[in-house]
Known about the structure:
By secondary structure, this protein is an all-alpha fold. It has helices at 6-28, 30-46, 53-84, 101-122, 124-141, 160-176.
Amino acid sequence: MVRISVKTLVYSISKMKQNRWIAFLHLLGLPKGLPFVLFCSLLGSLVIEAASVHVIALAFAANLAIYCFAQVYKHLSNAPEDTFSPSKADPNPLSYGLVSPHSARIALYLAMIISLVGAFLLSRINIVLTISSILLSLALFHPNFRISNRLMLGFNQHHFLYGGIFLLNSIVANQVHPSMT
Length: 181
């Protein structure tokens, strides 16, 4: 008979909660994608001579939400395939059972709402760019289309189409809202 102490049980529950948060962050693509989004957003703000800090921060938040939307949608649509043949380069927390599909869908909708609200606060062109990035995500990863299976459009952490959208989002946001000084 194996005896489990209270200390072991409490430690394992806290460790499980920590592992779930880490898996949720991997679902959003944040550990690897954050420098990419930050670089593209800051590069877009350097094009303008006098950029406002709050506009840069809002453009970065909208770009990060777009990136999280793309990552979550990718993991949701690839979960059935990744269950049987998991990818070592891009592990899917949904296929390992670390994140529920319900939580992933909530994260997907929240990322879409945050990106659209950020685009509405920036400009009309940012709305068009955000909607085009959402449509790009749907076209790349929808099970009926699977455009991401093509050689040039395979999605990795530094996808050139998303980088261009992030760059344009920051450029347009800083041109529409010049600095207040």
